[in-house]
From TrEMBL:
Gene this protein is translated from: mnmE
The protein's name: tRNA modification GTPase MnmE
Gene3D superfamilies for this protein: P-loop containing nucleotide triphosphate hydrolases, Probable tRNA modification gtpase trme, domain 1, tRNA modification GTPase MnmE domain 2
Binding site for K(+): 228, 247, 249, 252
Alphabetized PROSITE patterns for the sequence: G_TRME (PS51709)
Subunit structure: Homodimer. Heterotetramer of two MnmE and two MnmG subunits.
UniProt family annotation: Belongs to the TRAFAC class TrmE-Era-EngA-EngB-Septin-like GTPase superfamily. TrmE GTPase family.
Every TrmE-type G domain range: 218-362
């Protein structure tokens, strides 16, 4: 990647066949290539209908062309979009013509976005938000991605970096002019008061990282309990289809099954697990072991037990985010021994269960700016630690150096400082054509 002298092209729209296929070109030869295919180009940023022709002059298609002269384009380079009819044959023929032109090549994964980053059109937080926006499947994933891809989160990090820069400037002034009256002593007090506030803001932001992870990767709800408690029946009822096999035979579920559900814009991942009990069956033992691991990693645990059950299981489940459910309500009736009583057969209590899960989710994320990638969290922790060292230090020059390190960590989040080694990893996660 990073051969910026090349002009690149790729399909930037959806899977073929489709009603329209958008082929994007970017680079110094983009306009020349478009001219070779379509003749005279339309006015910049105005769509024009043109016949797309091969080298021998035969018509491949009629398409709309839009030209975006750099630097006012997505990549910061000259860009062209060909809005073709979306057949595989048409796109393949256009690819063949473009490949035959000098200095043109097919784009690599994420190369358009990487050029946008390298040309200052996007920072890394915005790039990651764009990737999340493209892959968003739920409303909350879309909202979180919009905050990142449209620059809201970057503005926050830049404002913190600016405060650190101003603090360092005042400290340097105090060091340089300590014997003069130009820098009053109260300035230093104001600087460290602001740095204390900044430390609290970063820590509060870090505390919301789990919310970002949940919105992006899903809220993990593990259905646990003894055999024949109705775990698989509940999974099927929530999914509204047969995901798991349901029988009266204890130990039917041997492995973990899961289904993803969009719950009012939140991605919720329900996991059905093997019944928790002592067993001599080696396969079932492995299922119980995996169930225990899933329980440890859960955001919420639904502990199921048949109402009025005589079984004396001791599951020893964590008490945090645990909801005890009495099952087979249609058979036994309501019992006060549970947080909620349900019937997977009739659907009684399932709406209340969804409501309880939504309550937890809305407490987790309120729509505020949150870090949602491990890379961001890592550098935020480094910045927080550096600010803490500055606040607790004694030598003024060392404290100033700690603030410089904090600003550097924030710069790495947005890509303004020393992130070359991360770029291939980040942009390889994009699809071709973006």
């Amino acid at each position: 990647m990073n051969r910026t002298e090349d002009t690149i092209f790729a399909l930037s729209s959806g899977t073929l066949p489709a009603g329209v296929a958008v082929v994007r070109l970017s680079g110094p030869k983009a306009f020349d290539a478009a001219t070779a295919l379509a003749g005279d180009l339309p006015i910049a940023r105005k769509a024009g209908l043109r016949a797309i022709r091969s080298r021998n002059g035969s018509v491949i298609d009629q398409a709309l062309l839009v030209c975006f002269p750099g630097p006012a384009s997505f990549t910061g380079e000259d860009c062209v979009e060909l809005h073709l009819h979306g057949s595989r044959a048409v796109v393949s023929a256009v690819y063949e013509e473009l490949s035959a032109l000098p200095s043109l090549r097919f784009a690599e994964a994420g190369e358009f976005s990487r050029r946008a980053f390298e040309n200052g059109k996007l920072d890394l937080v915005e790039v990651e938000g764009l990737a999340d926006l493209i892959s968003a499947e739920t409303e909350m994933q879309r909202r979180l991605a919009v905050e990142q891809s449209f620059g809201g989160q970057s503005v926050l990090y830049r404002s913190w970096a600016d405060r650190l820069t101003r603090a360092r400037a005042m400290i340097e002034a105090e060091l340089d002019f300590a014997d003069e009256d130009d820098v009053p002593g109260s300035v230093s007090d104001r600087v460290w008061l602001d740095m204390g506030d900044l430390y609290a803001e970063i820590e509060q932001h870090l505390g919301s990282a789990k919310a970002g992870e949940i919105v992006r990767d899903g809220y993990k709800v593990v259905i646990a309990g003894p055999p024949n408690a109705g775990k698989s029946s509940l999974l099927n009822a929530l999914a509204k289809r047969d995901v798991a096999i349901v029988t009266e035979i204890a130990g039917t579920t041997r492995d973990i099954l899961h289904v993803d559900i969009d719950l009012e814009g939140y991605l919720v991942r329900f996991f059905d697990t093997a019944g928790l009990r002592e067993t001599g069956d080696l396969v079932e033992q492995e299922g119980v072991r995996r169930a225990r691991i899933a329980i440890e990693q859960a955001d919420m645990i639904l502990e199921l037990e048949e109402i009025d059950s005589v079984s004396k299981h001791d599951a020893k489940l964590p008490s945090t985010n645990l909801l005890r459910l009495g099952t087979k309500l249609d058979k036994h009736g309501v019992s006060p021994n549970y947080d909620l009583c349900i019937s997977s057969r009739t659907g009684e209590g399932l709406e209340q269960l969804r409501g309880r899960i939504l309550e937890e989710l809305r407490r987790v994320w309120t729509g505020s700016l949150v870090p949602n990638r491990q890379r961001q969290v890592q550098y935020l922790k480094e910045a927080s630690q550096s600010v803490a060292e500055a606040l607790n230090g004694r030598e003024l020059d060392i404290r100033a150096e700690s603030l410089r390190a904090a600003a550097s960590s924030l710069g790495r989040i947005t890509g303004h400082v020393d992130v070359e080694q991360l770029l291939d990893v980040i942009f390889s996660q994009f699809c071709i054509g973006k």
